[in-house]
Amino acid sequence: MPMTVNQTMKKFFGFTEFKPGQQEIVDSILSKHDTVAILPTGGGKSLCYQLPALMLPGVTLVISPLIALMKDQVDSLGMQGISSSYINSSLNAAQVKERLYQACRGKYRLLYVAPERLQSEQFDNIMRELPLSLIAIDEAHCVSQWGHDFRPSFLSIGSWVASLKQRPLLAAFTATATTRVREDIINGLGLQQPRIYINSFDRPNLRFSVEKSGGRSRFIREYLQSHPGQAGIIYAATRKEADSLYQELSARGLSVSKYHAGMSNGERNTAQEDFIHDRVQAIVATNAFGLGIDKSNARFVIHHNMPRHLEAYYQEAGRAGRDGEAADCILLYQPADIQVQKYLIEQSVLSPERKGIEYGKLQSMIDYCHTSACLRTYILNYFGETPLTDNCTNCTNCLEYELRDMTVEAQKVLSCVYRMRQQYGISLVAAVLAGSKQKRVLQSGFDRLSTYGIMSDWQTRQIVEFINLLIAEGYLSSSGGKYPVVMLTPAANPVLRGQEKLMIRMIPKPAIDIDTDNDVFEALRALRYTIAQQEQVPPYVVFADSTLREMASFMPRNPEALLQITGVGELKLKKYGQRFIEVICRYIPDDDIEDLPGKTEARPSNAVNSKKGRSIPSRNPKIPTHVISWQMYSEGKSLKEIARERDLTVNTIQSHLVRAAMAGYAMKWEQFISNPQEELILQTVGETGTERLAPVKEALPEDIDYFMIRLALIKNGLLR
To answer: Tell me, what's the pLDDT at 706?
Structure first.
């Protein structure tokens, strides 16, 4: 008597119950219906075709682009007593011939191949003689140009199946597919009246977050140190970034391996095995890693850069927590990521129509990074699923943001876009709102607009973030393309007219809202004076008054938060940061303070009263040479004037300003580099990396020198 489905599953796979959605898919295939199955990563797609393969007569052909998946599944099936094999480019001609011979003899129940193999005459002839009962197409989204991983070879599958004398069943599987991609799967593969099963895309155990703190490598380093024994994947955008991050983490004694297409097969296999068998804590990799890798206990996936597509991001992030236990999915975002992705789109060989599709997908990814709504809800809506609630209680937006009335701020931005005739991009709108004196603003006459400078109390980067948030929330739209234009949407009208309030979840305001002329500000000034005396420099060389006021207003309690304060660079953070944080924390209630790294002693309970007995420090002539050059620059002198007065070369003065900029001193960037030049530099860096500047310089026009390159990198947090 033949075994039932459940008996077969228990005997060969050891499972007594199906995961959600699996049984319906298996039943559909066994009842001889073409089937489309969309299950999230970790949803158990492979069982949905492996189990029917054991119950149907003949052979099941599995078409997949994933070499790693083929080997892993064949090895796993072999351990379960199921005869299977694969044929792909990792085999030599003799091995292929032997496996085809064994297939002819009926040895295999499942045979895995890449779609390109269908074009082989030898393979085609043998397949036509085999009793094919089922063809399973894995990663079926590859058939769609609207998918995130379109592969032309998938387009031939449908016509090849149609050419067979006896048509087998077809079952298509993918983890991520929008409505349009699902239509392309059905039409492109030639499915006949398929049954479609869409399991929920939701992975409740995954905690999503978007971090914009700036220090990406530091964030990763500290995360690994604070999560010992937890395995995870760190995705980098390029091979060079993967190499650089791997070297930095390894140099600091962290247990990591790396994986990318530039490594040999042996090196990649070793890295993969070390990660799978927990011989290393984490693997630093490009998107070449992870497809078909079944490591269920990955507790985190960190993206060092913003991916181009939400499909790719969710598929990669979904490799965390496949065992159903809690896991972190963290995206480290920086504005420069947008330019890198745009550059990669422009440099591709895609058709204009396809590039338009890519830009649209990129905008959805940008919106994800800026939305104030629930991150999980945003993802589910993107894939056409409506969640039961808009507060998942398991993403940073739901857990850490508070609802705030941003109507006035939004009206300022929307009004400025309107007065600029909806013809310019985010950067220029932000520059006008901030009251920038850059040449393009003045030449266009935007300094005469009523909205010019009305948000001068905001930093330009904060305005850019807020504009992106308004785009993500649907009050503004971006035209897309290489040079997107910001425009109003119908949703903006009632806000502009004051008919509707704009309540947005935002980062909470400081726990203590203070007037900067108070004890906190004075305590910070006292510390600054002490440091200035010790180092024999004027106090403003340590930190400007404006920097101290911002500290007193926002009360940064840890290094990441302090680094966001204007005038605090990496060097000053390292040199002075801990001391300023300690002073700030004296004014925060003990139950509202984060532990300081490396500090275990009790905090002083009394506030510092620095107004009593404090004398005004005198100027001290012992100032670092790069600071002197910066002071002269700040007074409005040109580089040539500074060089002449100091009897130095212009190149030396440029190096001084680079040092000052890296230390966090204020710079008028537009004096040295235009927006188009900055964008071109960032695009080039996206291809060449930042390890060496010579390749960057060689790829740029002659009018862009090393000084301009360094300033662009410093401004965008890419050089420290």
So the answer is: 85
